[in-house]
């Protein structure tokens, strides 16, 4: 029986690379975009997950719009929290309801362990996901968090259009590390930061 994998934020470059790898290895994959499953909307999540009942959940949906906290854009702050943190909890809790043996792979960010002046909501929500993952591991679940550093995605290109693309992590290489997590090659509760500089070493390990 094929294991079923649900990837949130299915329109992103990381989700697409991971979907291709999973299908090559014979997994059953569902990767809904935000129009199919809104991770901030409990009814939307319930409708998607109740029909699919995944064995593995990859919490990949993310949101970042850098802004100084001094500018006090409450809607922007709320959106960061709702997608990056709320969405992880809502999707995980609903998926666990249908499959108590669910494996959880959270896509974090190097921003969870780095400071960026205008990224406070993003950094804080990603750091919270790391801590939640460690708590879930202590709660007898298989949960790991794999955090990309600077990665060649549409989202990053929109933020840093003039960045040297050769210095960025390839989505496919990051997806290969996610595959190791999906195969349970990492101890539950593990947090791994993946960068262009260390990805080949991680893949050989």
TrEMBL record:
Coiled-coil portions: none
Pfam families linked: adh_short
Superkingdom of the organism of origin: Bacteria
GO MF entries: oxidoreductase activity, acting on the CH-OH group of donors, NAD or NADP as acceptor
InterPro entries: NAD(P)-bd_dom_sf, SDR_fam
SUPFAM superfamilies in UniProt: NAD(P)-binding Rossmann-fold domains
PANTHER family registered for this protein in UniProt: SHORT-CHAIN DEHYDROGENASES/REDUCTASES FAMILY MEMBER (PTHR42760)
Family, similarity comment: Belongs to the short-chain dehydrogenases/reductases (SDR) family.
Name of the featured protein: SDR family NAD(P)-dependent oxidoreductase
Organism: Agathobacter rectalis
